[in-house]
Amino acid sequence: MSFRGRLTFFFVAIVVVPMIAVALLVVEVSNDSRSGKADARLSTALEASRVTYDDALARAAKEVERIANLDRVGPALQAGNERYLSSVAETEVGGSGPVTVGFFDAAGMQLASAGIPSGVASSRQTVELPSKGEVGSIEVAMLDPKEYAADAADRTATKAAVVSNGELITSTADLGTDQLPSDPGGVTIQGPDGDLRAVALKLGGAGSDTQLVLAVTPEEGFAASQPLVIAVLAGFLALATLLIFVVLRSLQGQIAEMLAAARRIGGGDFSEQVPVEGNDEMAGLASEFNKMSDQLSEQMGLLRRQREQLDESVQRLGEAFAAGLDRTALLEIVLETAIAACEADSGRIELLAEDAPAVTAGRAPEEEATAALDGAAHDAIDARGLAEDTVGQQQAVAYPLVRADDRDAVLGTMGVVRTGRPFQPAEHEVLRYLIGQASVSIQNVGLHERVAEQAVTDELTGLSNNRHFREWMENETARTARFGGELSLVLLDIDNFKNVNDTYGHLQGDAVLESLGRMIRLESRGIDEPARYGGEEFVLALPETPREGAIEVAERLRERIETTEVPGVEGNQALRVTASLGVATMPADGGSAREIIAAADEALYRAKRSGKNRVVAAG
């Protein structure tokens, strides 16, 4: 990142981001303050409205009791005299009395009513007659919801609405129905003229699911206007940007002068000095830069690359090579380093292992160069040390790659070749050191490969171990589930294996396990996954194999085990064993590794229970 970019980033990090965060915090605090004030106001208004409503409820209880005690009301309810009950209801409604009166029979069916249908602040009482029991009930409501809402709005200077069973009964303002609160806490709703703060009060009464909702417009607070906050923030950022621009121009001018001087020094020109202006840190930096320039001018002619520096660099490279795990890549780096250090034209590393390809670097060698490399490599193996060979104008030198713990164990050779000039003793030393590091590298790679193989291989049988097999099954079942196909599993258990150990000893038991491992490998294809599942249990996974094919493989394996003699150990006679096998196939017997293994295991136990030495398929 450029200096300008870093300075800009610094400005954004310490000025812009905190300022935006502060602006957001101010707006949030202001909004919370507005909401808090509005909620406090609404809480007071609700208490006032509750008092009015509770008084009406108390009067409703008295009115319903009075009507219930009228002489002819009880018999009329018993007889279902709707005409009389209607006249009573109409008589009782009006004035300062109830706004709604209703009569109901003992089953709760309405017999008569008068007044408005949606009255609130209601009370209900059952009517009983001697020896008759309950004959009906009376319900009265004392408040008209429209009048109650209007009265609440006038008394509290708010907007009011009455809601029953989720439906708006009446409202003094357009508050909507889908956004009105249903819980006691305050919420912000969208009114026709902007945001409103609203709270709800659950109203009591007979069978009441009615709420009074009050809403007010939140008071405007400091920094509540987002345009104002944005304008103030923009002004501050503009001022800060102007100041940073001035500072940036000043700093860039001084840095540009030092950069130009550095480029002159890099080109070998020490004739000009960086101007020193002022008394600040930049002036001090310019002064020290000039001192550095003078020192470089004095010492430039004395500095030369020394052989020791090259040797140290080569040594560090060699140690890095020896720590790596990619054999071919490391040998290529070692060879390229040797070619560069010895100023050779090309080189070659040959390992004696049959499956190890030769590693070459540099330009393609001519026929004479190849012959010189061959001769030097052959002599280096015979001599167990440095060997040189000359063919025409080609000069070659080679060293054997030997084990660090056994100097007689030759791993291969490394040689380099060039035209015309023989290699000097110092170059021999460099080559010998790199040979040593290459040897260590090869051993480390081999050790890593052995450790990696041991981590996934059962030591006794050479098959995959249980952990590696389970990982393989998870991957293979996932692949089969995604792309289709069939995956079969053969689970094998040696019959009466405990008797083998008890009778012939554990070494003979190990020989049986080794023999079974070999037989399972013989029945496996390249894409199959044989493994030792644990103890005397083995498993063979067969990708892209249907149930019939898996049963055929299992039967061949069972017959091979039955007819194969296991050599005796420690004086024991040869013996034969049998095995029981269970077969399961995905997707028919399960859709995951766990389900397939469980199905094969269940089939194996059925084979055991049905007489052993047999193959049983799941399902």
Q: Write down the oligomeric state.
A: single chain
| Largest sheet data | 5 strands, antiparallel
Q: Which consecutive residue ranges, at least 5 long each, have pLDDT under 50?
A: none
Broad structural category: alpha+beta
How large a portion of the residues is in β-strands, by DSSP E? 15-25%
Shape: flat
Distance between the termini: 66 Å
Q: How large is the count of helical segments?
A: 15
The number of distinct β-strands equals: 19
Query: Roughly what is the average pLDDT, rounded to an integer?
Result: 81
Give the % helix: 40-55%
Structural description of this entry:
- This protein has 619 residues and is of the alpha+beta class.
- Helix content is 51%, strand content 22%.
- Helix 5 runs parallel beside helix 6, helix 8 (327-342) runs antiparallel to helix 10 and helix 12 packs across helix 13.
- The mean pLDDT is 81.
List the helices and strands and how they pair.
Blueprint: H1 3-68, H2 73-79, H3 82-92, E1 100-105, E2 110-115, E3 120-129, E4 133-143, H4 145-156, E5 159-164, E6 167-171, E7 187-191, E8 194-203, E9 210-216, H5 226-266, H6 281-299, H7 307-322, H8 327-342, E10 346-351, E11 359-362, H9 367-383, E12 387-391, E13 394-403, E14 406-419, H10 425-456, H11 466-483, E15 487-494, H12 497-504, H13 506-522, E16 529-534, E17 537-543, H14 547-563, E18 579-586, H15 593-609, E19 615-617
Parallel strand pairs: 18-19
Antiparallel strand pairs: 1-2, 1-4, 3-4, 5-6, 5-9, 7-8, 8-9, 10-11, 10-14, 12-13, 13-14, 15-17, 15-18, 16-17
